[in-house]
Design a protein that fits this description.
The protein is of the alpha/beta class. It is 42% helix and 15% strand.
């Protein structure tokens, strides 16, 4: 007999159940699925609150190809060296809930910070979204447009994009109907051995563990301070770069996650 397994990412219990048919569909799925893969512990808890059988739930996260996404040769040996040109990277949808405006305000504060006057800072946003036009307007209003770059590239080019960066930021923030479910870009940044600044939102803490500096969602000043700390402390960048790569290899690699999936499927069969 065939088994039906579904992967669930939603981490907000009873979310969007006002949409016609969704409540009944979810109830039927909980009762009729042979097994459920929950992306995070937060997802599992949401399923339990909705009435799912705990014995039918296994937590398995997303994975990343650590051979495709990797640092350049000798990067980890040299990342702790002092440098004056610092490149800060964001990759994702250009939407309010991704914290894009917090990045812009932080960028302005960093660019006028007297402690950083001897550094050359640049910021790259990779991606598209409904807020791009408003972002460009704000960049001009803040007079930081010369330090900001917007690009869109194919996924095949992304490993090389990460290799150009010194710091990766992902300051997502929750809304009434959204919390970051995992954030694939954070997996890519970890595999690329980048020092990361991100936020306490949804599944992000489970994704990054101790391999990132965490700040509060929507907190511009804490975001700015965390980036500044990385800029001024190359040894800290080196420490978190190594943590990121190690976590990618030991927790998130496709080999590790594939073994978990194989064990689950074998147990169900």
């Amino acid at each position: 007999m065939k088994k039906v397994v579904a992967t669930v990412l939603e981490n907000i219990p009873f979310n969007n159940e006002g949409i016609w048919g969704r409540k009944e569909f979810k109830k039927r799925a909980r009762n009729e699925l042979d097994h459920i893969i929950a992306l995070t512990q937060r997802t599992k808890e949401a399923l339990l609150l909705e009435g799912a059988d705990e014995k039918k739930i296994t937590m398995i996260s997303h994975a990343i190809n650590t051979k495709r996404f990797s640092p350049i040769k000798n990067y980890l040996e040299n990342v702790g060296r002092m440098k004056k040109n610092i490149h800060i990277l964001f990759s994702g949808r250009l939407e309010v809930y991704k914290g894009i405006y917090e990045i812009l305000y932080s960028a302005k504060l960093l660019l006028i910070d007297k402690d950083l006057q001897n550094y050359s800072l640049s910021f790259t946003f990779v991606g598209e979204g409904s807020e791009k036009g408003k972002m460009i307007q704000l960049e001009k209003k803040l007079n930081i447009q010369k330090s900001i770059k917007h690009i869109s590239v194919s996924y095949g080019q992304m490993p090389a994009i990460y290799q150009t960066a010194d710091i990766f930021v992902a300051p997502s923030k929750p809304t009434a109907t959204y919390q970051e479910q995992y954030c694939t870009a954070l997996l890519e940044a970890q595999a690329s051995a980048l020092p990361i600044v991100t936020t306490f939102s949804g599944g992000i803490p489970e994704n990054v563990g101790n391999a990132a500096v965490m700040v509060g969602p929507g907190d511009v000043h804490s975001l700015k301070d965390a980036i500044k700390d990385y800029i001024l402390n190359p040894s800290k960048r080196a420490e978190y770069a190594k943590r990121a790569r190690e976590r990618a290899e030991t927790v998130h690699s496709t080999e590790v996650v594939a073994r978990k999936m194989d064990m689950l499927y074998q147990s169900l069969l």
